[in-house]
Amino acid sequence: FEAVRERIERSLKSWNLERPDAHASYWADILLSPKSFTVAEKLAACQEASLEGVKRFHRDVLAGRTSVECFVSGNASADEARGLRDVALARLREHFAAPLPPEEFYELPRSQLQP
User: Fold this and answer.
1) Non-local CB neighbours of 92 within 8 Å, separated by 6+ positions
2) Which of 69, 101, 107 is nearest to 88 (CA)?
3) SS3 66
4) Is residue 68 within 8 Å of 90, Cβ to Cβ?
5) pTM (two decimals)
6) Closest CA to 42 of 17, 8, 14
7) Are 82 and 115 in contact (CB under 8 A)?
8) Is 115 helix (H, G, I), strand (E, B) or coil?
9) Which residues form the signal peptide (predicted)?
10) Distance CA 77, CA 20 (A)
11) Is the pLDDT of residue 13 over 70?
12) Residue spans of beta strands (DSSP E) within 1-115
């Protein structure tokens, strides 16, 4: 864990050495994506990270109840799309994640395009 954390920390600390066009692209992304984290925020989180914290996060969030929403595009039937969803759910169950019941799903507002 420490080796990975230190590698990420070094990468974040050397961000200032990136090319100017990379900085411009980065700041454009930050401005256009309000839920993005800055390099400084990522560095602070990295420095505070601990193995126990990651284990706690896994236990509380990843191994808790979760929902999966799949978007299948292309040449796939409805049955094939459901099969892909079932594979994703099975993978989560392998790691002790319990699916949320449908009445607890959070629905995002969306538009449906008609052909």
Assistant:
1) 66, 68, 99
2) 69
3) strand
4) no
5) 0.55
6) 8
7) no
8) coil
9) none
10) 46
11) yes
12) 65-66, 98-99
| Distance in angstroms (rounded) separating the CA atoms of residues 67 and 99 | 6
Two tokens, residue 30: 């930050």
Asked if the structure places residue 69 within a domain, the reply is: yes
Can you say how many angstroms the Cα of residue 24 is from the centroid of all Cα atoms in its chain? 24
Query: Could you identify the residue written with the tokens 């990420």?
Result: 8
Adjacent-strand bridge partners of 99: 66
Q: How many distinct structural domains can be found in the chain?
A: 2
For 23-69, how does the pLDDT look when each residue is reduced to its tens digit (9 = 90+)? 999 989 888 887 888 999 999 999 999 999 988 887 777 666 666 77
Please, which residues bridge with residue 98 across strands? Answer: 65
- Domain hosting residue 79, numbered range: 61-101
Residue 106 in domain: no
Q: Give the position of tokens 């700041």.
A: 27
> Is residue 43, in this structure, part of any structural domain at all?
yes
Distance CA 69, CA 107 (A): 10
pLDDT cut 70: percent of the chain above it: 81
Residue 75 and residue 45 share a domain: no
